[in-house]
Amino acid sequence: LLFGGDNKFIFVTIGAPETMLKYEAEHQRAKLRLREEYGGALCYYLGELDEKKAYDKPLDGFELFSSTLQLKLIDEVVRSKPYGSNEKDEPIDFDELMADGKVEEYFPLHHSRMRMKLVLEWASLMTKPQPLEMVREYFGEQIALFYTWYGFYNTMLWFPAIVGTLLSTTKVYFGTSDTPWVSMYGILLTLWTVLVCHLWKRLEAQRRYEWDTLEFEEQEVMRTEFMKNPATLRNAHKNEVTGAIDEYYFDEGGYFPPSGRAGRCAVTFGVIFVMDGLSILLSIFIYQHAVHPLLSMEDHMTGSTVGGVLFSATSLLLDRVFSALIARLIEWENWTTETQHEDALIVRSCLFNVVNKYFCLILVAFLINHVPIMGEDLSCPDWQCMPVVHTMLMVHFIATAMMQLAEANLLPYLKKVYTDFKMNASLKKAAGQGAPVKTPMEEALETPPFSGVFDQYSPYVFQFGYIACFTVAFPMGALFALVTNLYQLRMSAKTLVTATQRPPYSCASDIGAWQSVMDIVATASVITNSLIIGITSHSCYFYFPEMTMLQRIWAVIILEHLLFGAKIFIENVIKIEDAEASREYDRKTTMRDFHLKNTFKIELD
């Protein structure tokens, strides 16, 4: 906790004695894991169970409460309404205090022992499996779930990376972007995409049982921003179902006529529509005036490279502008819970980025050879668009890898140098010596806060879209992504542990609307890969040299239907719910209830 005034800073660390933590844990119904001999399930904290040493020790070395649970309990106490009979007393509102300048920042501190353990066992070892249970205990389920997904995605990338590399060698052998194996790779890639989505749902269900987050969304509390929003009615709306007065209420409204939240959402969708239109026009303009004039039968590389660079740059620029706009619009929509707020942000981001990131490839791969653009024929030389798409994707993956490396290494280094210079220049001058030793509070103050898991998921989910829908044209793309991701996984972990303020505890039972985005990608991959195989690529001529364009269109339709059938078959054969995980969860909860009733003589609620 940092107070500022007259260029002087006062750090106040807030803690609580063990007796208070135990009282608050029982009052707030905090969950701790029982020892294995009592089932190993999560159980509400009870003083009498603690006296009988029924709870397991956390992984960070504390005897009872993990450092994360301690921070959560202390934060609840600090923000709660003061004890006493004075009704005018209000809870401490740190957001308001920071806005008034009375408090500079409010943040939790890292636990040094656990922090070092995470660095040694997670961030520094490229080949060792992630200690996800340790990550969950220290950061919470939401962050642990992201790294579970990230690790799963990287594991699944090995298949297209290996097969794509083998396919690329055949392209070198044949000396062309089209080989007899392009069609087979497109089919395998589509089935792989379906498996990624479905197997992740299964793993996610296992984590819900293991981490006991099955009922999280039903127990989720309202956002502080929702409760403080001027548009939220407080103790002024009668519930139509129960007849009781709602403490907080915001009208869902409707689209016709626009009113309430729905009306605000309509404005957001209007902005997205305009941004999508701008992205489409820019893509067409770039191809028409910068790419097409440089394409020729002898040289497609120059135009394709220029196009790849310009498309990547404009996509990044529009994404930055859109991110700034959508953050304000989502806040204006005034969602009740963090899950609703996050899902709304994901859906709106998807509606824009699907166009912003993929339209340029759709334009070149599927449209320019068959549809006049602005009344002009912009078809590829000799109708060979496969090499153009190949080069554009290659430039995109290289540019993305370079940008991620710069963001992970160069930018944090430059920020650190600037912050150190700014904080220490005057002290160095006064003392005539090197920089002073900083306290953990000063170091935490100088590090940026955690930006949230949205920024963690976004680049990799859309990377998944590129690989699933377009890397038939650039099979090495999966290998590029895999190598970059394996490095970025540990760098991301290192940044989170050593170069970011410790985020407050945050729970989640699933990855939210990102799953819907992945399902859309899986469906789209059936269509795009069928079109690349039948229309963009000429690989079908290796099997049927006399095919006409009409026959190729029919081949696309037949292949698309077969792949959709295979997708439905896979989704029905592989069950999402893991029977073994469900049985293990039931076993643990049954043992817990048995021991509570018979061993500890505690009546169940």
TrEMBL record:
Signal as UniProt keyword: no
GO cellular component: membrane
A molecular-function term among this protein's GO annotations: chloride channel activity
Lipid bilayer topology: Multi-pass membrane protein
TM stretches of this protein: 144-162, 182-200, 265-287, 307-330, 350-368, 388-406, 464-487, 520-544
Record flagged with keyword Disulfide bond: no
Name used for this protein in its record: Anoctamin transmembrane domain-containing protein
Origin species: Hemiselmis andersenii (Cryptophyte alga)
